[in-house]
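>> Question from a student workshop board

For tomorrow's exercise we were told to take the sequence and the ligand below, predict the bound structure, and bring the output to class. My setup keeps failing. Could a helper post the expected result so I can at least see what it should look like? The ligand is adenosine-5'-triphosphate.
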Amino acid sequence: MGQTAAVTIDKLHKRFGSLHALKGVDFSIEQGEFFGLLGPNGAGKSTLINCLAGLVRPDSGRLSVMGYDVVTEYRHTRRLLGVVPQELVYDPFFEVREALQFQAGYFGLGKENNDWIDELLVTLNLADRATTNMRALSGGMKRRVLIGQALVHKPPVVVLDEPTAGVDVELRQSLWRFIKRLHSEGHTIVLTTHYLEEAENLCERIAILDHGAAVALETKSELLARGICRSLHVVSSHKIETLPDQLREKARHINGNSMELRLRKDKDSIVSVLDAIRDAGIDIVDIQVVEDRLEDVFVQLTGEGGGRES
Ligand SMILES: Nc1ncnc2c1ncn2[C@@H]1O[C@H](COP(=O)(O)OP(=O)(O)OP(=O)(O)O)[C@@H](O)[C@H]1O
Ligand SMILES: [Mg+2]
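>> Workshop helper replied:
Here is what the output should look like for this input. Compare the format with yours to find the bug.
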C-alpha cells in the first residue's frame, strides 16, 4: 500500500472531431500487475495506449507512469514505458539488429546492452534474421521486432497492444513464456488482446472498455463470477419431445435425446431444474454443468462477440 501506481489514468477524455473516443476513463494499474485491457473494435483501447505513449494528446484529464506526468514529464515516462504498438510501424532501411540497436541508442544505451539485444533476438526467434532488412520480413516477424524494440531498454512498465495478432502458434507460446518471465521479474504488464483465453490465462485484473468508457474493472475471478449464466447439458434415455413452458424458455438446443438449458446463477438452482425435468417425465441418464467463461461475460457486458479479427 502507498506504493506509486505504475499507471494512473485520471478522467481522460479524447475526441476525434465529433467522435468521443475516450469518455472520462479513470483507473490505476499497480506496480507488478498483469493487467488486461479488453474491449470490442473501436472501444478506445489503442487511443488510451497512444495517450500513454505520448503519441496522442488527451483533450482533458491526466495520465502518469510511475508518478510522472505523461505530458509534462515525457522524457521520464518515455523511459519507464515499453509500448508495442498495434500498427506495424518500422524503418525499412534498417536490419533487424540495427533496428534494436538504434532504439537502444535512443535511450542512451550502447554496447553494454548488446547481450540483452542478443537475448531478445533469440527469445523472439529472430537470431537468424539479425541481418535481414526490415522490409524483407513477414508481418509476424515485423511484430516480433516491434516487441524487441519495446523491451530494448528493459522498461518497468510494458504495454502490449495486440502483440499476438498475426503471430503463429509457436511464437505466441514462446512470447507468453517470455512475458510471464518479465512479469515474474517485477515488470508491470498491460495487455490488449482479442483472444480472451489469453486474458483469462494471464491477466490478474481486467478492464473492459466499450465505446470509450470502462464497463468493468475487476479481478479476473470477480469478472468470471459475474457470469450470470451457466449451461446445463442433459442427456435422457428417450427422445425429448415436449417441455413444460418453465423449461422451454431456458432451452437453447434440443437435439434428439439431449438438450442444453441456460440457467441464471442467481435464480435457477440446478437441483430444482433437475426436479422439473424429472417431473416432466424425462429420465436423466447424464448431466454436465458448464460455467460461462470470460468470453461469455465479455459478450454480456459489451453485447459483442469479442470483435476478433480473423
Ligand atoms: N486518429 C484518429 N482519427 C480519427 N478517429 C480515430 C483516430 N484514432 C482512433 N479513432 C477512432 O476512435 C475510436 C477508438 O479507436 P481505437 O483504435 O482506440 O479502438 P480500439 O479499441 O483499439 O479498437 P481495435 O480493437 O480495433 O484495435 C474508433 O472509433 C476509431 O475510429
Ligand atoms: Mg486497437
